[in-house]
Amino acid sequence: MKDSDLVAVIGAGPGLGRAVAAAFAGRGDHVVLLARDARRLADIAASVRSGIGGDVGTVSADASDEVSLRAAFSEIRDRYDQPTVLVHNPSIAVEAPPTRTTQTELIDGVRLAAGSLLVAAQEVAPAMRRAGRGTILVTGGGSALTGSTWSAALAVQKAAVRNLAFSLAAELAPDGIHVVTVTIDGVLGTAGFEPDRIAAEYLRQHEATDGPRSAWRREVTWGSAGASG
């Protein structure tokens, strides 16, 4: 196993994003957080550093904007190196059933969630292919499997992300790149869905990258009892 990795976390927030950053930084990896709000990012990075230490940087980017996101990855390469781990977390919840969801809300959500995964994967895959190793960890949601009345737009986003993650897994596995979606089938922050516990699963899935490919997963479902196949 490599001594350390460069981990890019897109859509980093104070919940799961911070927990994932802490999990990787705690094992000695360098972590770069990406989101739109530079001040919020700085606060999250400072929180990780003050909590466990570690090397945590930030790059501002609008994940829904292809030009902005590609520029952010160019900045990461210039300032740090090629990411060896990508963690994809962006989504947006619109609290409305299908009949009250606008077309713009639906399309904008898919652009943010699936669009940013597509762009980010295209940005990190070439270097991962050259190295013959890499991990792409995708935050999924249970509504991708069942639909949702309270947030139909989010369910469509998560379904699109899940499908794209599966497609990426099929394409990139022969090149040594492990793509896995962690489908969170519950409400983040409630009992059994604590961000730190789920972040530990992200770390486990990344560590599996250096093991036999026969043990790789394309999806792990996280329920109240933890992870399952």
Characterize the structure shown.
The protein is of the alpha/beta class. The protein contains seven helices and eight strands; from the N terminus they run βαβαβαβαβααβαββ. The chain has helices at residues 16-25, 38-52, 66-79, 103-131, 143-146, 152-172, 195-207, and strands at residues 6-10, 30-35, 55-60, 85-88, 134-141, 177-184, 219-223, 226-228. Strands 3-2-1-4-5-6-7-8 form an eight-stranded mixed β-sheet, sandwiched between helices. Helix 1 (16-25) crosses helix 2 and helix 3 runs parallel beside helix 4. It is globular, with a radius of gyration of 16 Å. The protein starts with 5 loop residues before the first strand and ends with a strand. The mean pLDDT is 95.
Topology record:
Blueprint lengths: L5 E5 L5 H10 L4 E6 L2 H15 L2 E6 L5 H14 L5 E4 L14 H29 L2 E8 L1 H4 L5 H21 L4 E8 L10 H13 L11 E5 L2 E3 L1
Parallel strand pairs: 1-2, 1-4, 2-3, 4-5, 5-6, 6-7
Antiparallel strand pairs: 7-8
Helix pairs in contact: 1-2, 1-7, 3-4, 4-6
